[in-house]
Design a protein that fits this description.
It is found in: Cytoplasm. It comes from Clostridium mobile. Its cofactor is Zn(2+). Belongs to the endoribonuclease YbeY family. The chain has six helices and four strands; from the N terminus they run βαβαβαβααα. With about 170 residues, the chain is an alpha/beta fold. It has a single domain, classed as 3-Layer(aba) Sandwich (Collagenase (Catalytic Domain)). Strand 1, helix 1 and strand 2 (about 40-45) form a beta-alpha-beta unit. Helix 1 runs parallel beside helix 5 (about 120-135), helix 4 (about 110-115) packs across helix 5 (about 120-135) and helix 5 packs across helix 6. The longest helix has 17 residues, at about 15-30.
Length: about 170
């Protein structure tokens, strides 16, 4: 289950974009080996709101494009596929028979700015940021060059499947 909560009023979110996000998330999770019911929350905010969350949660007083708050914890260098692929989830791991993966907070205002900056559509930027965050929820990171290369490769593979390319 994917919950989308739009808490900003600067950019109108089209129903088509929400449906595309749901398909992208579902596809990404299945591609990464998730075979049980899940829950992901996506919160759309503006720059001011994400700045406040960034300050409160990370101690960084500036706006950002997207924040990911994973609920699962992974051994260093491992992602969901490595850590949980053969793991038998117990009832206490689940909430109402769903695996809670975490939350994504995305500034639509920042996504629009970055789409213009990188010369591609708003929709492409939102989809990229969602996939980027989903991969974070699954344990991917980009702090080390090797990890970053793997994460970027997965992002592009998923976006390519939906023909969401840089324009």
């Amino acid at each position: 289950m994917i919950y989308i909560d739009d808490r900003q009023n600067k950019i109108k979110v089209k129903e088509d974009l929400e449906k595309l996000i749901e398909k992208l998330v579902d596809y990404s999770l299945k591609e990464e080996g998730l075979s049980i019911d899940y829950e992901v929350s996506i919160l759309f905010v503006d720059n001011e709101s994400i700045r406040g969350i960034n300050r409160e949660e990370r101690g960084i007083d500036r706006e950002t494009d997207v924040l990911s708050f994973p609920m699962l914890h992974y051994p260093q260098g491992e992602v969901f596929k490595d850590a949980y692929l053969n793991y038998e989830f117990k009832p206490e791991d689940l909430y109402e028979d769903k695996l809670i993966l975490g939350d994504i907070v995305l500034s639509l205002e920042k996504a629009e700015e970055q789409g213009l900056e990188f010369n591609h559509s708003f929709e492409r930027e939102v989809c990229y940021l969602i996939i980027h965050s989903i991969l974070h929820l699954l344990g991917y990171d980009h702090m080390e060059e090797e990890e970053k290369a793997l994460m970027r490769k997965r992002e592009e593979e998923i976006l390519d499947k939906f023909n969401i390319v840089r324009e």
